[in-house]
Amino acid sequence: MKVLPLDKLREALNIMANDAEVYVPMLRDDISGYFQWADNPADELALDLLNTYLSPKNVVIPQTEPMYKFKTSKQDVEITEVQVREGARIIFGIKACDLKALENLDMAFLTMGFEDEYYKARRQDLTIIAQACYKPGPACFCEGMGADRINPAADVLIHELENQDYAWEAKTSRGEELTAKIAALMEERDVTLPQAEPQSRKVDMTGVSEKLAEMFEHPVWDDLSSRCMNCGICTYVCPSCYCFDIQVSNRGEAGNRFRCWDSCMYREYTMMAGGHNPRDYKKERYRNRFLHKLQFFNERYGANLCTGCGRCVILCPNGVNIIEVIEKVKEVKLDA
Amino acid sequence: MHDHNHECSCKDHGQTNPLVPTMVKVQKIVDETSDVKTFYVVGENGIPFKVMPGQLAMVSHVAIGEGMFSVSWQDDDHLQFAIKRVGLLTDALHEIEVGQTLGVRGPYGNGFPVEECKGKDMLFIGGGIGLAPLRSFIKYCFKHREDYGKIQIIYGARSYDDLCFKRELFEEWPQVPNCEVYTTIDNAEDQWAGNVGFCPAYLEEINPSPQGRIAVTCGPPIMIKFVLQALEKMGYTDEQVITTLEMRMKCGIGKCGRCNIGSEYICLDGPVFNLAQLKKLPPEW
Ligand code: SF4
Ligand code: SF4
Ligand code: FES
Question: Measured between alpha carbons, how far apart are the two ends of chain A, in Å?
Answer without folding.
Answer: 57
